[in-house]
């Protein structure tokens, strides 16, 4: 359902949130290495997130990417909206362009339930919720 870039963005934001308490900023190379992603992809994606104020960046020798309290408490759906757009939650599970309740694909009814639950989870879960499990060693960003 989510693009590879969107999944990478979610991992990057969670990584930045995990550095919040220490006040550290992270560079593109550090983030890319930690989440096992291409530096090029991470760089472009981070700039998109900064532009939409999902994360922040600072220039200079002590610069890098970081997250504020407000950004740490934002729902995951903000990241998805920025990278993939809101329409990701309206797309057909088989990728058909004309799938609807009146013209369903073979998995329409089952997929709609899963898609709607996933959307609700993304609206409810905040960056901080996902970050806590990573910081506690209960969840991982690579592997």
Structure description:
The protein is mainly alpha-helical and 143 residues long. The protein is 51% helix and 4% strand. It contains seven helices and two strands; from the N terminus they run αααββαααα. Helix 1 packs across helix 3, helix 1 crosses helix 7 and helix 2 crosses helix 3. 24% of the residues are buried. The mean pLDDT is 94.
Choose one word for the global shape. Answer: elongated
Question: What does the radius of gyration come to?
Answer: 17 Å
Secondary-structure class? mainly alpha
Query: Main sheet: which strands, in order across?
Result: 1-2
Instruction: Kindly report how far apart the N and C termini lie.
Output: 20 Å
What can be said about the biggest beta sheet? 2 strands, antiparallel
Element pattern in H and E:
HHHEEHHHH
Number of strands: 2
Helix content: 40-55%
If you average the pLDDT, what whole number results? Answer: 94
Strand fraction equals under 5%
Number of helices: 7
What low-confidence regions span 5 or more consecutive residues with pLDDT below 50?
Answer: none
Topology (SSEs and partners):
Blueprint: H1 4-18, H2 28-35, H3 39-51, E1 56-58, E2 64-66, H4 69-72, H5 77-83, H6 108-124, H7 127-135
Antiparallel strand pairs: 1-2
């Amino acid at each position: 359902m989510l693009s590879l870039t969107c999944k990478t963005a979610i991992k990057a934001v969670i990584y930045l949130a995990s550095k919040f308490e220490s006040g550290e900023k992270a560079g593109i190379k550090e983030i890319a290495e930690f989440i096992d992603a291409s530096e090029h992809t991470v760089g472009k994606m981070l700039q998109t997130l900064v532009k939409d104020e999902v994360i922040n960046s600072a220039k200079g020798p002590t610069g890098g990417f970081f997250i504020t309290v407000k950004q740490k408490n934002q729902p995951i759906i903000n990241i998805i909206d920025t990278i993939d757009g809101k329409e990701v939650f309206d797309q057909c599970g088989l990728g058909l362009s004309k799938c609807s309740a009146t013209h369903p694909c073979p998995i329409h009814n089952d997929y709609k339930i899963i898609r709607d639950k996933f959307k609700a989870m993304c609206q409810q879960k905040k960056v901080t919720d996902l970050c806590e499990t990573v910081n506690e060693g209960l969840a991982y960003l690579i592997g």
